[in-house]
Each structure stands twice: as structure tokens, then as C-alpha cells.
Specification:
- Among the domains are: about 35 residues, no CATH class; about 110 residues, no CATH class; about 110 residues, Orthogonal Bundle (Cyclin A, domain 1), CATH 1.10.472.
- It is extended and about 125 Å long.
- The chain is mostly helical and about 450 residues long.
Length: about 450
Amino acid sequence: MNKENVHAVNIKEPTTRITRARAKALGVSRDLPPLHPQAKQEFNQFLQPNCKRGSSENKSTDMGSNFQSKRRAVLKDVTNMKVINEIKIQTSKQTRKNVAEKNAMVAPTVYVGPQVWKGKTKATQDMTEQSIKELREITSQLKLVNDLESKPIIALGSSLPKGEIKISNQLEAGNEQTIIDIDSKHTVPWMCSLYAAEIYDNLRVAELKWRPSVNYMKTVQRDITQEMRGILIDWLVEVCEEYTLGAETFYLTVTLIDRYLSKMYIEKQRLQLLGITCMLIASKYEDITAPRVEDFCFITDGTYTRKEVLDMEHEVLDALGFHLSVPTVNKFLRRFILAAQSSYKVPVVELEYLAKYLAELTLIEYGFLKFLPSLIAASAVFLAKWTLDQIEHPWNPTLEHYTNYKASELKPTVLAMQDMQLNNGASLQAIRQKYRQKQFKSVATLTSQKPVKPLS
């Protein structure tokens, strides 16, 4: 094989880049394919004067894509708003057509004539302008929605005059007519901030339906007295502490006892049996881990057997029709304390404990059955604030709004509650000893010798 044949064999389509020096050394420069093909040169010459336009086209396309995805994210965020039905966002047929054209443009790079490039750029610009216009409309609509959602729900039956009260998320200094929105800070699901107003409106109706009789000692019972009832409840306070039961369990226990005694006659020998049975039912309903039946038999020193407790449980549930979810003082007290704390920059722990202490004292007294649970809760907050501070008026528009009680409507309950608070010589001391402990800030020792004046 001669040199020419050798060269002919070696001259093929180069698979790697060959420099000019290498080509000269091989002596095959005249036979190598051109470094820049003609078609590629013509395409580059066409793109050279329009390179900025091609970049603008890509940028515009990306901008339109970003607007489209952002619009979808915003719509997902507002799907749970109440006024979403009032917002109708429509996309024009031309916009959808342009979006389809844009998707069809995503293809391998091919040679495109100048007129086609000009048309694509114009279509992309039109699509971007349309997207920007729609995005501005959506933004303005979402701003309106947020303004509507930020306004708190006005509780039904509010005694405040319309147009004279300003509702705000924060306390404005020097403005006594400001109502603070106590639900705006709580976004966790278990606080039910979106439905709190409706829930408490329903509780206000339910407390009228399920309240016990205010004079069952005269009309139904003949063998027990008010003092016996007080002794039983005072003992149940110690039982709750013994088994670390919740506060709502104690309130519900007393409510079940009074509701049963309002309907069924009972002998005094079975009054304690009724007490532990109602606490068993309440602990099953409210506590995570309820004490066993044997525990309640043990706490009575074996006075009652397991069968007697279970039989009494059947009687109580049958007499009450299994209606156990009833409003108690504690249910209203939680919300009213939250409204009272809103006027302070830092929550006052003593205010919470003192209001709970005063509310629990009313459970022992039979005479407080004539007052509604919501009224007792509001009066406990009023007297607690007055006990801690006799200078500032204990009632404000926020409390009046959320309790639906004016200060004058609390007068009988507050005065009766203060007499009980000042009666340190009472024979039943379980609740007082409980709230003398340091864990409750010893609020049972706090009293106000001044009579409550701002009740007119």
C-alpha cells in the first residue's frame, strides 16, 4: 500500500476537533470538511442581528410561565375563604390559545424564518401583558378578601350599639370604645377561632335548655337538704385532687348531680353513691384516663359495691336521656378570661386563678342555681378584676361584647359572690384550701374590703 492509499484510509469524517497545525502536519487540509458548514453559517448570520430579540423571546416566555404558576398558587391559598364565591376569575380564549402555542413551541432547534420569529415574539408579549393584567386583578380581589376576613365576627345578640364601637386587633391607648378581637391571634385548629362566635351563641341557647331546676329541694327532694348537697360537693373536690381529674370533670359532675336531683327523688343514704357515679360518668366523658369503678368504691371506704355503682350509672344516664354535653360555668369562663386578658400587655396569671376560684365557690352554694352559667362566669371575671385593681373599671367594651352582659346586669351575682368570698369562716373549706396553694398563686387569700361600686 503506497502513501496515497494510506492517506486515503486515514481521511475520514473527523470525530474530534483537528487544529490547523495538526491538519497541516497531516497534509490533508484541502480534503477536510469546512470548519463551519454553510447552513450553520447562514443560520448564524440570520441570528446575529436578532440575537437580542431571541433572548427577549425566551425571557418573555419564562415571565409568562412564572405568572401562570403564581396565579395558581394564589388560587389554592384562597379556596377556603368565605367570599370565594364572589370572585370569578375568567381566562380569555385568546390567552388559552397563546398558552397552547407557547407549549407547542417547545421543540428541537430548527431553522425559523424572520417573519415566524417576529410573530412568536409578538404573541409572547401579548400573552405576558394579558397575564400581568389578570394578575393585577387577582391581587386587588385578594386584598379585598383579606380585608373582609380580617374583620371579626360579631356575636349574635350583642348589646352594643351598632356604629359606635370600633373593632380592632390591638388595643388602642386612650380609646375606651375599642373592642379587641380575641380570636385573631389564635390560628391553631383546637382553638376554633373561625367558629368561636357561633359555638358560644349555641352554648347560650343550650344553657337555657339543660339548666337544672332552681327549687328542686322543695318540689322533688324530701330527704336531703341544701347542706347535704354542699357537703357532698366539698368532698368531691378532694376526690378530684386525689385522682388528678380535670376542672371540667368537676363542673360536669356537679351539673349531672343537680340535673338528676331535679327529676328523681333520692334517699340521703344514696346521695354519696350519686356523687361518685356522676363523677365516674363525667370522668369518662372529659378525662383521657378515667378512674376505675373499683377506685370510686375504694374512695368511699367500701360503702358501695361495684354492682351498686353500675346500677346507679344506668339510672342516671336513663334519667338524663344520655345528654351529657351541656354548657357549664367553666366553658364560658375560659372565653371570658381570654377577653379579660386582652386588655393587658402581659397575661395576669392571678386574674385567671382568682376567677376560677370564685367560680368554683359558687358550685357549693345551692342558691347560685338561679343564675345562668354564663352569668356566673362573667361575674367571676368582674369580681376578680375588681379584687386585683380597685382603680380601673373592671368592665370594658371587649368584655361587654363577648359576654353579652352589661355591668349593671351583673350586680346581684357579683354582690352574692363577694359575700361568699369574704366569708372566711365558712365550714366547707376544700376549695379555699385548694386555692391557697402556691401553684394557684394563693389567690384564696386575696380579698377586697371595698364594696363593688361600678355596677350601676
